[in-house]
Amino acid sequence: QVQLVESGGGLVQAGGSLRLSCAASGRTFSDYAMGWFRQAPGKEREFVAAINWRGTTYYTDFVKGRFTISRDKAANTVHLQMHSLNSEDTAVYYCAAHSLLWYTGDSYDSSDFGFWGQGIQVTVSS
Question: Which of 1, 18, 63, 90 has its CA 20 to 30 A from that of 122?
């Protein structure tokens, strides 16, 4: 059974930092792109960041320079380091694994990801 389990969320003050982690089990994802998405109340789920199997990273504009995605293939984990958080970053953050082996494109839509974590809350207080 494949599982993606997020950790590291919580409450942080504006300007602060958090590091999210996603531990995968039941399958090795070293040859798949991994991504982070988020969903704020009343809004659609949106792409945040992704890292492909080669280690190339992609970010949506509103997190560039503040968030960093990384992965540890040996540990089958992916991380999202978040700095300079603001109230607009408040959302449930989801870890996801891409469906296509060795995908190296620069477009990441939620429909391209076949495995999802349960999500973890990040709340930024102003």
Answer: 1
